[in-house]
Amino acid sequence: MESNKGPDSENSERQQMLAALPHVRRFAISLAGSRADGDDLLQTTVERVLTKGVPEDVDMRKWMFRICKNIWIDEIRARNVRQRAAEGQDITIHDRPEGETEIMDKLKLAQVTAAMDNLPDEQRTVLSLVAIEGYSYKDTAEILETPIGTVMSRLARARKNLAAQFSDGSGPFSPAQAFRA
Amino acid sequence: MKYTDEQLSAYLDGELPDKLMSEIETELAKNHQLAEHLTALAAANQAVQAAFGSIADEPIPAHILELLNEPSTTEHISLTANVVPFRQRLAAFSVSKWAAPLAASLAMMLGVTLGRGTMLASNNNDTMYAQLSGTITTSSPLYDVLNSRPSAVQVSLGKHDDINIKPTLSFQTVDGSYCREFQAQSKTSALRGVACKDNQAWKILLLNQTKISESGGYQTASGTASALVDQLIDEIIVGDPLGSEAEGLIISRGWNQD
User: Residue B186 in 3-state DSSP?
Assistant: First the structure.
């Protein structure tokens, strides 16, 4: 369906932003380490995109990821206001009774969040885009405005870091253990 | 080790050249140490997906969605002044993540182009969606019904007459525009909305969708949803709704203001 310039294209921009929101929110939470800080980051991102506008012919989701990452790295982290999610906190998603699986899920989430927290921002950002959002190296490089080689090396270091944290057997998944003779 | 962590990590993402991909595959089959190392690296993916995967299914906080529903500076629907306070009231409702696709379904079947919208769900879960703007162009079956059919007469569409549309009310607004309230129903959902004639299109002011329970049967948007439509009409109507004679005359004039 063709849309005219003006209000209609503005509408379609907002529709695209709406569609991207769940993913950008997940990215923001993975960067900030908690839902509360992630939602603050998401709000700033949306406000920034609305005020600064979006270049023509740009993929809205990628654009929002880039703005979100820039705000996180350049502004929030620079001001050092990041509050690390205390272990076990900020993992309550639903107010319904918990089954065993859900408690396990929470434990895993807490452990993974803590492990992610130990990663340098650059590594966490790349891991989030590739392993959670499913972006290719090329797209990730485009979003982060870095060479593909940098994406590759940060990703490898992120994986190595997490593997080391999980390999003591206390991690949520320790497949390395299973292979150990 | 023969391969670097960068290569193994890229192998996990399928980002290596084909030749190297198959080379590593072959090596993995016979090299247990390599397989063990690769599995450890892969744990990161599994962990972050388990931890963060479902976050994208959570509802977006209402205060963030509201940022995207600010009135635009170039409003393309007349009646702006009347609609704005109404929009602010809508913001009070909680947001449902599954509202949009559901509402889109029947509206899309009817060929309605949805514009800026406000997703909302009432507390009793019966209202799925309210749409504050949208366009019904001449190619939509809904356009024909609104443009040429009298109120209170149902029109059946679809291969098996499984979509029913019924204009329910016609009225004039403060700026002279003609508007109609209508209902549409498919097997699974019902719409109730208000649209106003604006040049060659009908512009949607509000569109509510209600999911129909398995018992089926005709069901209009109930409770809060209905109240919203009623409120909107109350706010913009001038005088009484058009009688059937007046409506027939306006239909013959193509809903043009005189």
Answer: coil
> Are A29 and B64 inside 8 Å of each other by CB?
no
Single-letter amino acid code for the residue at A149: G
Nearest by CB: A131 against B15, B45, B67: B45
- The reported pTM is 0.50
DSSP for residue A20 = H
pLDDT in tens, chain A (181 residues): 443 445 566 667 888 888 889 999 999 998 888 888 889 999 999 999 988 888 888 889 999 999 999 998 877 765 544 444 333 333 333 333 444 455 555 556 677 778 888 888 899 999 999 988 889 999 999 999 999 999 999 999 999 988 888 765 544 444 333 333 2
Taking the Cβ of residue B258 and every Cβ of chain A, the question of whether any pair is shorter than 8 Å is answered with no
Instruction: Note the ipTM here.
Output: 0.72
CB burial of A81-111 (b: ≥16 within 10 Å; e: otherwise) equals: ebeebeeeebbeeeeeeeeeeeeebbebbbb
Task: Establish if B29 touches chain A: CB-CB under 8 angstroms.
Answer: no
Least CB-CB distance to B64: which of A43, A171, A172?
A: A43
Residue A16: what residue type?
Answer: Q
Compute the nearest-CA separation of A132 from chain B (Å): 6
